[in-house]
Amino acid sequence: MPEGMEAQPAQIVPYEGGARPRTASPRGGLVWCACGALVATIAPPLAAYFAALGCAMLSAMGDRAMRASLAPSVLCVVGLLLGAAPADVLMGLSAYVAGCLFGYAIARRGTSVTTELLLTMGFTVALVAVDAWRAHGAGTTIEAVLGQEIDTMVGLYAEQMDIAAGAALDRAREIVMLLWPMSYFLIAAVSAACAHLGARAGLKRVGADSPRLPLAFLDTPLWVVGVMAASIVLVAVGGLLGERGTLLLMAGLNALAVVRIVLALDGMGVIAFFLTGMGMGGLVRLIVLVIAVNVEISLPIVSGFGLVDFWANFRRLARGSVPADGPQG
User: Fold this and answer.
1) I want to staple 56 with a disulfide (CB 3.0 to 4.6 A). Which of 130, 155, 162, 199 is the partner?
2) What pLDDT is stored for residue 325 in this prediction?
3) What digits encode the pLDDT tens for the residues 186-214?
């Protein structure tokens, strides 16, 4: 390990009184929350950012500020969402609530892979539920709508394809029909990233320490390996059962896809750590990480590297801790 790069546990110091900056007031937090409600139905990621910013500010100011702002926040959200379509309201409200939870969790507990991943998964479930409710109201299902869209697209080019291309498209259709929940996870991940940035910005506005999760020290929890093992079992059982095991196969494949993303981030953290130790600048690290992402899209090499890091611990991290300071990846 390069000298001076030992991992240290993260610390977040909430606001404890004294002279506040002028912007550090419950009113400021409420204004940001109102901004989140205003854009919730048209830009959910932005709503998550503003909601996390406002809630982080209020949470860092203490329980009294949170309680005092609860009723105005609810009235503000309800009032600004009344004019939208019900499905859009539910979608925007899901993003808004997710942002609030991110802001509260990061302000009170600091940042961790487990917390943020669980919140992202919860937001994913909410998105799927909203679209399922919308499809049910139209007398159909998400799978049926997706299948119709794919068939329509394939039909446009069917006459121009040979037998081999048609077989490849049929296989691609099967994969898409199994992995469609991942699209919701990726949408939720974008909003989660915005909420993370919003919470950090909110803490800075009230003079509290903003927790950092440097990529070079990102360390995914060991339970991810357990999820990966369970996913492999689901895929195997689902494959053996054929059509009767479609749901098991779908659950296993999507869980594996999420685990792969987490492991890839861990692998890129190892790469960023050693690049930083070699004194590489930010531009060089960015170029290398972009190459790593492109490699991972084709082959699970970077995620495999992250899996090995669980046992090899290349960075000699104290498992379960995230440093407050350290090189940025």
Assistant:
1) 199
2) 40
3) 999 999 999 999 988 888 888 777 666 67
CA distance 276 to 329: 7
Rounded distance, CA 125 to CA 66, Å? 26
Distances in Å between the alpha carbon of 173 and those of 128, 147, 168, 170, 185? 20, 8, 9, 5, 19
Nearest to 30 by CA among 90, 93, 100: 100
Is 70 exceeded by the pLDDT of residue 75? no
User: Is residue 160 pLDDT above 70, yes or no?
Assistant: no
Q: 5 to each of 173, 217, 265, 272, 326, how far by Cα in Å? A: 47, 10, 19, 12, 7
In this structure, what token pair is assigned to residue 261? 């993303």
Residue 267's identity, in one-letter code, is: G
| Each residue's pLDDT tens digit, 271-286 | 988 888 888 877 888 8
Radius of gyration over every alpha carbon of the chain, rounded to an integer in angstroms: 22
CA distance 234 to 250: 9
